[in-house]
Amino acid sequence: MLKLHAGIDAGSVATKAVIIEEDFPGTPESRPRILTKALVPTGADPVGAAEKALSQVLSQCGLRREQLASIGGTGYGRIRLSGVDRVITEITCHAYGVHWLFPAARTVIDVGGQDIKVIRTNELGQVEDFVMNDKCAAGTGRFLEVMANALGMDLEQLARVDLDGKAAPISSTCTVFAESEVISLVASGTPTLEIIRGLFNSVAERIQGMAARLIIEPEVAMTGGVSAIRGIPQAIERHLGLQVHVPELAQFAGAFGAALLSRK
Amino acid sequence: MNGGTSVLNDKPQCVWLCSYTPVELIHAAGFEPIRLIPDRAGGPRADSLLPRRFCTYVRACLERRPVNQPAMVSAICCDSLRRLADVAPIVLPISLPRTPDGQSTPEQVTYLALELKRTWGRLHRLLGKDEPSQKESASLIRASIEKYRRVRQKILQIQRLAYSGEVSFSSAFSVATQVLAHPPEESSPPAEFQGPAPSRGKSQIGLLLAGANLLDGGLIALVEEAGGRILDVDCCNWNRFNLFDPAQTDETSPPESSSLDEVLYWLAESYLKRHPCPRQTTAIHRARLLAERARKVGVRGVIFFVPKFCDVGLYEGPVFKRYLDSLSIPCLVVEIDYGYGDSGQARTRVEAFLEMLEAKAGCAIACS
Where are the domains of chain A? Predict the structure, then answer.
């Protein structure tokens, strides 16, 4: 029998929702897959954004909420979500979501709007160990957004920059200090592309430092909104000396994991 | 209390910080010792003297120091408290000898006893009083030791309620912390215990919590609310406030001596015998002690809370994690801003750690 489940990832910048379908639930033949997805800006209203994202995915499938077998919630706004069957942290959800998107992964690097997580997983997609940044936003999506603003660009323009080429040294990963450095580099006439590559390297250095606290095992997968900025996984690859895979739908790994775990 | 003196007996109050601070001496000298429990992080007062990237606990203490207090006394248990004494001359520092293997030598005890004797004189100078005779001093200090023995026993009773599961650790912490924040003459603060921590429908994961200090009781509540079952705690306002390890040592009394030196030697020895804090010993020695505690009570994981920019805690964290990992005891190190324990990031890390332990036990997240 086919069952439908939803997952909502109430992130600090974007709220993601997916609906998954599952044939033969609870059996080895089960192969859950994402039917549809939606992404809405979170803004200052994570609850409203979650409702909006869920409405969008339901509408895209022509479904009513009652037709869902379960709903899972995750993300920083998870504790305020109502009407969900299970609330799980984004660390557990990303690990489990990636397990289904890229089963060979044993390390997950998730970089979102305000958090960086490095997660070591096992062959079942369970978390073996993890590290997460504290309140400091260095190296996160917010950091890149501030830097893009300082350069008069947006994140989409940043996302198109490749790592190959000369990179300016940016010594600090502190958002405030790095912004000052970027402004100084701009003033000194350093080419914008070199500054951007320097920023990519500074993000990768921060992740490398966090990853050093764990025993990193290949394969490495990257998730979260920042994974879409292709220079970042490239820089992480060079710093870790390991290939970094960005699975399709990487930004939805958390919501996918929440939907999968809501089945339990 | 009002304007820095007690309404009970007009004694001037004196704020103390580190739990190695000999409250008995402060009390015997004529002050009412009160542990400063800052309720939020540093602000403009702290900014005026200390950099922002500085131990959040020390900054919070500086920020929240009552303006009318004539003095703050603190054992110098870390570099940050040393720097506080440098920038805030109202702080009367007490130097401690380090005991790297956890065992104090007679020379170290003698050193601390001499430091206590100097402190005794400085406390009297602060009060503008002459130091009493050696015999009278010994008698006054013995009386204060007895008074604080009762305070420590009161706290021990509160701890036992938490260990027996009759009350939640968070409420026991809250009550114990209030006892420390009151002078010993005052009647006990109303004990507003709450019952055992609710399970909230989650499987209860047995945990050991450790930290430099866990004065921010919100952290304890956060762990309980997330579904953690606290089995033991190692921090300076819990087990390390005891002058002896009740599980290992019989409590002794100070010598019935009129010799000030003998009484101070006994006091110094009692402080150096305590369960060691990060400052007193090496990180690996502390890691071994932590592992022993964890195994003794059968916890499934250890959470180590470190105040942001706490120098000793930040060095200890990686050592603890590596050592406990090698013994297959999962360990989570959580850096916290003082007074903001219940932050989203801290909550996420604690909840994820519990989910990980549940999954390891195969009790909740059985992957298909």
Answer: 2-102+251-262, 107-246
Q: What are phi and psi of B54, to 5 degrees?
A: -140, 155
The per-residue pLDDT for B195 is: 59
pLDDT at residue B247 in the model: 52
The domain defined by B149-248+277-367 carries CATH number 2.40.340.10: no
For B114-119, the CB contacts below 8 A with 24+ separation are: B115/B268, B116/B22, B116/B25, B116/B264, B116/B267, B116/B268, B117/B260, B117/B261, B117/B264, B119/B22, B119/B25, B119/B73, B119/B92, B119/B94
Measured between CA atoms, the residue of chain B closest to residue A79 is B344
Task: Kindly indicate the confidence band of residue A134, based on its pLDDT and cuts at 50, 70 and 90.
Answer: confident
Q: What is the pTM of this model?
A: 0.89
Query: Matching CATH topology for A2-102+251-262 and A107-246?
Result: yes
**Are B318 and A89 an interchain contact pair (Cβ–Cβ within 8 Å)?**
no
Query: Can you list the pairs that B52-55 forms with residues at least 24 positions away whose Cβ atoms lie under 8 Å?
Result: B53/B309, B54/B80, B54/B83, B54/B309, B55/B80, B55/B307, B55/B308, B55/B309, B55/B310, B55/B311
A120 → chain B, closest CA residue: B356
- Test mutation, A9, A91, A140, A261, chain B, max B CBs within 10 A: A91
CB-CB contact of B222 with B345 (8 Å): no
- From B360's Cα to the closest Cα of chain A, the distance in A is 8
| CATH superfamily assigned to domain A107-246 | ATPase, nucleotide binding domain (3.30.420.40)
Query: For chain B, which residues make up each domain, given as ranges?
Result: 149-248+277-367
Chain A contact for B358, CB < 8 A? no
- Please enumerate in sequence order all residues whose Cβ is within 8 A of that of B131, keeping only pairs 6 or more positions apart, or say none: B120, B121, B124, B137
Cα atoms in the Cβ-side hemisphere of radius 13 Å centred on A91: 28
ipTM here: 0.90
Of B344, B365, B368, the CB nearest to A26: B368
Contacts of B349 in chain A (CB under 8 A): 91, 132
The average confidence (pLDDT) of chain A is: 91
Q: Write out the H or E segment, with its range, that includes residue A38.
A: strand A33-41
- Kindly report, residue by residue over A72-102, the tens digit of the pLDDT: 999 999 989 989 999 999 999 999 999 999 9
Using a CB-CB cut-off of 8 Å, the residues of chain B touching A133 are: 345
Model confidence pLDDT, tens digit, residues A54-75: 999 999 999 999 999 999 999 9
Q: Which residues of A touch B309 (CB under 8 A)?
A: none
pLDDT tens digits, one per residue of A167-216: 998 876 677 778 888 898 999 999 999 999 999 999 999 999 999 988 88
Superfamily of domain A2-102+251-262: ATPase, nucleotide binding domain (3.30.420.40)
> Which of the residue ranges A112-126, B75-89, B235-249 has the most confident prediction, judged by mean pLDDT?
A112-126
The minimal CB distance from A91 to the residues B330, B336, B352 is found for B352
- Specify which residues B333 forms β-bridges with: B304
Query: With contacts defined as CB-CB under 8 Å, which chain A residues touch B355?
Result: 88-89, 91-92, 127
